Request: fold
Amino acid sequence: MYERCIALAWCAGCRVYSSALVHVPRTRPPADPLAALPPEERERLLRSERRTVEFLARGAHRDRG
Ligand SMILES: [Zn+2]
Reply:
């Protein structure tokens, strides 16, 4: 079984933001990149799509070193 989800992708280098409809297996939900945040911080980010994108972009830079 699959769930239809909206996938959002942001490239900080090109400053391109795109979205697509994707199929996610119910038995394998995608990892939550905000899972490690305290609940209030997570809620604050999710209220603003812009803040969420900025947070994820910073994480991507950290991963690259
Ligand atoms: Zn790019």
Q: What stands out?
A: Residues 11, 13-14, 16 surround zinc ion (CB under 6 Å). The CA atoms of residues 45 and 52 lie 5 Å apart. Residues 49-64 form the longest helix (16 residues).
